[in-house]
Specification:
This protein is α/β, with parallel strands linked by helices. The chain folds into two domains: 93 residues, 434 Repressor (Amino-terminal Domain) (Orthogonal Bundle), CATH 1.10.260.40; 187 residues, 2-Layer Sandwich (Endonuclease, Chain A). A hairpin with a 7-residue loop joins strand 4 and strand 5.
Length: 301
Amino acid sequence: MSRFPADDDLEDDQGLDHRQAGPTVLRMLVGAELRRLREAGGFSRAEAGYRIRASDTKISRLELGRTGFKARDVQDLLTLYGVTGDAERETLLTMARQASVPGWWHAYNDLTPPSFESYIGLEQGAALIRSWDPLCVPELLQTEDYARALIGALHPGVSKDEIERRVRLRMERARILVEPGTVRLWTVLDESALRRRVGGEAIMRAQMEYLLEAGRRANVTIQVLPFSRGEHGAMGGPMAIMRTSATKLSDVVCLPQLVGVIFPDKQADIDRYYAVMNALVVDAESASATAAMIRRMLDEY
């Protein structure tokens, strides 16, 4: 039976002790290893599910890192897969325990559906985020006033306290762009995201000035797809592709929706979104041309 990576291997793969290995990423690492062990042992998902008194659907969710782990389930699966060495079992069980520790964003779980909690966890543990936003400034690049106006429009009738909590969550998420071990953000936004005056002229002017400031950071690349490019393959809605520092994990495609996030897992779908994102980067204005475009738009105010 193949050996689970030793502790030193885990450290090399952004393992257990820093921001890049938050609970969501750890769940994905544990899930990916459980899948590898299951396939190496020749077991079906149904057989694995029977062992832990669950369905094959639950096994799929565990292997994708979409749900937390019970220690007994992990122990039973490791026994089924023939992982009997104390060091191997303890390494994986330790990761599973740490994957169950809530991230800081769990304090806002009354505001967000479970799928969006997973999205935030991926975002907070990412090494690279590539995103496309057709209607709004990307959430990680929004000013407080822009976010407040947008959140108020998207959540009509909620209290001012709830709006402020949602704004605070968004601002705390954006800290990954400036803290040590910063994520690389490469975003393409449609020209309409800059033309729509969310919150009024003063708020939009401050927002565009902030985009110019953020675009000067070494870890942030901002491109705009102008109206003149016409139709394109990403007109269906926003998307993000998350890459973690854990080299054992594949990139994750995320499709933010109004009330949650969809995570496609069919390889054909993932390949299509990769192709669309790559085409957007080619078709959009360069980062320098984008900055010049934003400065021209500021002159219109």
